[in-house]
Amino acid sequence: MRNSEVEYGRKRIPIPNYSLLLTHYSLKTYSLLITHYPLLIKLLILIKVCYDYTMRNTTRKIETLPTGSFRVRVYRDEQYRSRTFKTLAEAEHFNQQINQIGVDAAIADLHAKKALNKRNKRKRQITLCDYMLVHANELANVNDEYRRFIRTVARSLGVAGDIQVCDIETDNIKSIISLFEKAGNSPKTVQNKYMAIASVIRKAHNLGLVQSNPCYGIRLPKVRQKQMQTLEPDEIKVFIEIMHPHYQPFTQTLFRTGLRFGEITALEVQDFNPNQHTLSINKAWSDSGKRIAPPKTERSNRTIPLPKDVCDILTNLCKGKKRGDLIFLTVNGMRIRNDAYRTAWLKALSILNGDRTNRPAHISPERFEELPIIDKHLRIHDARHTYASTLINGGVALATVSDFLGHSNYETTAKRYGHLQLAGRKAVISALGDAP
């Protein structure tokens, strides 16, 4: 065994290394114990393991310090360590965590909460406008259009957007709603903007940035259901006649199939079956027309029958095209976008409502003066309502109409178009014996 040495004059005197000697004899004694008393050694090891486990996972006594805080002593890494808390509830919660998940996990959870509180403390200083902008960037599984909408709402808050997130109260939310109403927003737009703000506040509340959610109990302006506008068959013919010649086939197909705008503009040659006179709807433009995706709902994947006039239109448009080509295109050969078609739609609608200042080139002056005036303010989506009302008035069951429209459920169809079932009402009156 090596010894240490010290100099004494010219001589080097060896000094025994007592720590090494102690280790040597301890190991020798331990080996003798293992040889002669193996059961005793195993029992001592088991006692040590049980002691460590008990000390690490047993509720410790909570001590009250002179400063008013509370201390919990825990046994970790074979020694006692302490954790100090401001309130008794925090100390008791830490003790409960030790019993449930153990000392190491409880301490790790404590460190994570402290880091989160530190990060949230910095976020509490952020204004509502800035927090909404951050929220828009952090959103997942949403399209860019919704992100832009949240940013637009954030920048339209004015002075209310300068309020810090931690200071927002119910009165502030009411003031914001009043601001939207004074700006001339419709009740539906006010609701949409409120929902965007409420989602941000809900996230802040879940993170502990606000004590209570100020959006609870807010009364929003009621949205009045717009009266459904539809055209009669002869009115549809006049409207199509007024429409720009290039968009006449598209408009006729729109009224005769009831497709959504994103569905009809995504139709490809392979979706049309001229032999069976059917049309398969299995995709639609999504994300503001940036990409083609599956339709709105699962039931929107459907196959609908086509009348002869629409079959003739599609057959003519599909000539010379490949299976993956779009059926409907603009004058320049591009896909039809909502804004471009809406311009042509509004121009035809103004003539239908009596505007005779601008005569389309494809209509003669005599015919232009003979056009009937139909005072109806139609949206593009009203072509879908016209299709549904035509089917229902023709005696088609609501369940079948629901399938053709691709609604998510039957209740949606019944709610929107149930009042059109005149045949059912007449049958009830006839059964009661009061039929005229």
Pick out its properties.
single chain, 436 residues, mainly alpha, DNA polymerase, domain 1, hpI Integrase, Chain A, 3 domains, three-stranded antiparallel beta sheet, 18 helices, 10 strands
Write a structural description.
This protein is mostly helical. Helix 5 packs antiparallel against helix 6, helix 9 (233-242) crosses helix 13 (338-352) and helix 10 (248-257) packs across helix 15 (382-393). Strand 3 and strand 4 form a beta hairpin. The strands form 4 sheets. A 3-stranded antiparallel beta sheet has the order 3-4-5. Strands 6-7-10 form a 3-stranded antiparallel beta sheet, with helices on one face. The chain has helices spanning 18-36, 38-56, 88-101, 103-123, 128-138, 144-155, 170-182, 187-206, 233-242, 248-257, 261-264, 308-318, 338-352, 365-370, 382-393, 398-405, 410-417, 422-432, and strands at residues 4-8, 11-15, 62-64, 70-76, 79-85, 272-273, 278-281, 284-286, 291-293, 302-305. Residues 1-9 and 15-22 have low confidence and may be disordered.
